[in-house]
Amino acid sequence: MNSAQWTAVDRYLCDTLLPSDPALDAALSASAAAGLPAINVSPNQGKLLHLLARIHGARRVLEVGTLGGYSTIWLARAMPANGTVTTLELDPGYAALARSNLERAGVAERVTVRVGDAAASLAALAAEQAAPFDLVFIDANKDGNPEYLRLALGLSRPGTVIICDNVVREGRVADAGSRDADVVGVRRYFEMAAANPRLTTTAIQTVGSKGWDGFAISIVSA
Question: Most buried of 22, 41, 98, 144 (most Cβ within 10 A)?
Answer without folding.
Answer: 98
